Amino acid sequence: MGQVITIATYEPKESAKPVKHSLPSHPIPKRRVIKILVITSKKDPATGRIDTEKGTVEKLTAVDPVSGIIDSKYGKIDPQNNKIIQKDKSGKPMVTAINVDENTGQIYVNDNVVDSKTGKIDPNLSQVINVVDPQHPAVLITTITASRDPKTGAVDLSNGRTEATNGKIIPETGEIVTKQGTINLKLMRIMTRDPKTGIVHERPIQVDKDDNIIISSGVVDPRTGNVNPNMVQIIQVGPEVDPEIQVRTYVGKVDSKKNTIDSKNATPDTTPGLYDPDKNKIYTKYGHLDPVEETLTVVDPKTGKLDTRQGHIEPNTGELVFKGGFINPKSGKLDKDIGRAMSVHITEPVIDSVVSQQPSERDLHRVASEKVVSPGAKVTDQPLITSPQAASQGTPVKEVITGVLHPIAKHRIVKIMVITSKKDPKSGSIDVENGIIEHLTGIVDPKTGFIETKYGQVDPKTGSLITRDTSTGQTEIIQGKVEPTTGQIIVSGGPIIDPKTGKPDPTLGQVFSVVGLKQAMDPSTPPSPKKRVIKITVITSKIDPKTGKIDPDKGQIEQSTALLNPENGLIESKYGLIDPKNGKLIINDPKSGKVDVKPAQVNEANGQFIVASGVTDPKTGKVDSSLGQIISVSGQNDPVLEITTITAKRDPKTGSIDLNNGQMENSKAKKISATGEIETKYGTVDMKLLRITTRDPKTGKTEQRPIQLDAEGNIIISSGVKDPKTDSINPDLCQVIKIGSEVEPEVQIVTFVGKLDPKKNVIDSKNVTPEVSSGLYNPSLHRIDTKYGQIDPVKGTLTYLDPKTGKVEHKQGSVDPATGQILFKGGFVNPKTGKHDPNFARIISILISDSQVNDKGEIVKRDSKSVKIDPKTNQIWMFDHHDPITKEDVYSTGYIDPVTGYITTVYGYIDPKTGTIAKVTKVDPSNVKIDPETNGVFTKTAQVDETGTPSLFRL
């Protein structure tokens, strides 16, 4: 047994300096991976100008250490001091002057340029270097807006409103750009641009002993939307928010003439990368990638020695290509003709669009010299800046008293499920089963421990809810309690805001379920890793006693989901915990404490796992020593993203977009994991090729249009945009699409109540009505909070509050190993009589899956109409998707492992003749292909390409 643990910390070296004028608690920005575009071409001997149209273009990955110096394969580029530092053949530094275009930001190198083909300096060459979408370091900004006593100057923090957003730091000037404005700690002022007029206002700021930045004038009251002289804002600069790095790779045959890899039959794989700013390496499962030196260091599995491969950039795609000596997927052996291509993709943290509109020192210089017109603003002869004296009103800055207030870290955000429902007037118990379910986020206050929510501040210790009357400003404490068994917070001691009307209702109560509270309260507690849903295919078949090999052609196939932990690579499946690194399948029984470890041989050629002992027959449910299993990981599901789209007019003269008067729309999109493309309601966006592809629903023809990316990573579509009001193309309109965060996998609870047959142990499902609702999964407790109560999948129990007595009750259920569902016997309400009946039982199925998005950009809601119940087994199936290959409807069902308690999703096909759904099918060419050389199993993708043709199989 062994493990490979990669630790990437960033302890700034002595040479690393804080940002100009920053406070002691402010973060020192880390080195960052960036993209640069280098054009190398001949220069005119007379004018010295470079002919870029005939030049060689290279898309390179470089490193920006935030000092302003760009570390690239061509040397260290210093735009501030107009020089580039290279090394000659002997290794000595060589300094060359460069020119920087202040308007475009392009960097011109006219001397000592290396020809990328020969590797030698050519005096006839020049270079133009562009930093692609330059991004400033993102930081967590926490803002508290609170009232101030006009007499004493004391700030009422307990009743303040807290907001957490991402801001950015401009290292060159030391400015901090936030949603509230641009903070200049050198001049001790904040600049804010009025979105309507474009006028920039300046206001003074103060810094207290805890590095809190205080704004005491011109603060807008969030309740009224007007400036209130008795309001202050306290801004805290938190830790840096790291960008996400994804590495896309594939192997294929190397074309020695073109120096490229044949990607036609290659299977691309996308994997997370971890960037170490000290060693300047990106750690991947394929080796250590040096983006500047263009090397890949791999470990020989036999000798354990390091092997460093030198690569080269493919100029058309920007991919880093490594020649020969990689595993051939077909033969499973090292092949000198097989190469690997790798590309680095950077996803920057999401910055609020309001932040990008705030001014900076550079903007103000441009306003003064060039009279730049903001969208909607009028041209004037004076710089659009107001004086600090004009903006400063009310109490002087020095009179603000904040007290002790420490910055809130980004891990203090928690997930919440709240159920609002009627309460019993006598007992005060809440009828959660018939309530309204909402999924929210909350912010934990480090000082009080309270959780800030849309309904008020929740005290997780006492269960009380602190609300604030928006009309009077007075606070009210609504009594509640913490249920010790489930940990849920029950608020029933006063009027609750009705989510439908927005008004207080004394007949309502609320039940809060909070996930992530322990880690938020104690920063030293490691956060639960964000697991990803992946698909696996398992073939169970006989083992040849002579060869010991599994015959997949005569086996049975089952497709299901599993949860991948990206931190350690472990996979939670219905078959146990798969450990790919150590080649083991671990079955941990939490009830008995026993751990059963089975060897799972890893096929190095195709990455599949082979289990040759202790396999359960899917038909009988018993262990059969003559059976073996082939487990194939088909790749992760395609995540759903939040997107915001603004459709607005564009000025044909200046090209500026009038975002302030645009039409905003929120929708969902799907990111294709294999390609990185984003499928939106407006078309399929290719961020690599900078284009959007749309299909005419009437003719079926596809159209491709160019897109642009702005400094914040927003997508700009400037042609073929439809007016949302008329649904017709308007050439004067543009669209700005902002990509948000991933949508968490949804937890669906499907259940029904009916009369139980004690002999067959199944419920008569003829006249039952299934119910579909959402739940909240708590990874630290491994429990699911639902409107029926808290489910423990390991123990098979349901803990709930009796609505009549208000007491905590427990129901012991049993997990059916065949269906993976929980059966709770006796004591449920008979819908005909309305009374509790000892002969009535409830079945609960838990389905955790990624959300589905329709053509309108909406999450497809699952309802009871899409539910089918097997009358023989009571298996609950929900429609999932239509298979483009077999033309059959695919259904999914939740499966709880009766031993480990793991929750997965199993897929099945409906028999059109009988109407029954089978989760285990025979292996046939329509669902699986077997490679005769490697025995690799290729499974269906259920995806289609741009033309609508099914993308049949992948390894």
Largest sheet entry:
10 strands, antiparallel
Amount of helix: under 10%
Q: What structural class should be given to the helix and strand makeup?
A: mainly beta
Strand content: 35-45%
Strand elements, count: 77
Q: Tally the helices: what do you get?
A: 4
Tally of distinct domains:
7
pLDDT averaged residue by residue: 76
Q: Mind sketching the topology for me?
A:
Blueprint: E1 32-42, E2 56-64, E3 70-72, E4 75-78, E5 83-87, E6 93-100, E7 107-109, E8 125-132, E9 138-147, E10 161-170, E11 175-178, E12 181-184, E13 189-193, E14 200-207, E15 213-215, E16 231-241, E17 244-255, E18 260-261, E19 269-276, E20 281-284, E21 287-290, E22 295-299, E23 306-310, E24 312-313, E25 320-322, E26 326-327, E27 334-335, E28 338-347, H1 353-356, H2 361-370, H3 388-391, E29 413-422, E30 436-444, E31 451-453, E32 456-458, E33 465-468, E34 475-478, E35 480-482, E36 489-491, E37 496-497, E38 504-505, E39 508-515, H4 517-521, E40 532-542, E41 556-564, E42 571-573, E43 576-579, E44 584-588, E45 595-602, E46 609-611, E47 627-636, E48 640-649, E49 663-671, E50 678-680, E51 683-686, E52 691-695, E53 702-706, E54 708-709, E55 715-717, E56 733-742, E57 746-757, E58 762-763, E59 771-778, E60 783-786, E61 789-792, E62 797-801, E63 808-812, E64 814-815, E65 822-824, E66 828-830, E67 835-837, E68 840-849, E69 867-869, E70 876-882, E71 889-896, E72 903-910, E73 917-918, E74 920-922, E75 928-930, E76 937-944, ...
Antiparallel strand pairs: 1-2, 1-8, 3-4, 4-5, 5-6, 6-7, 7-8, 9-10, 9-16, 10-11, 11-12, 12-13, 13-14, 14-15, 15-16, 17-18, 17-19, 17-28, 19-20, 20-21, 21-22, 22-23, 24-25, 25-28, 26-27, 29-30, 29-39, 30-31, 31-32, 32-33, 33-34, 35-36, 36-39, 37-38, 40-41, 40-47, 41-42, 41-74, 42-43, 43-44, ...
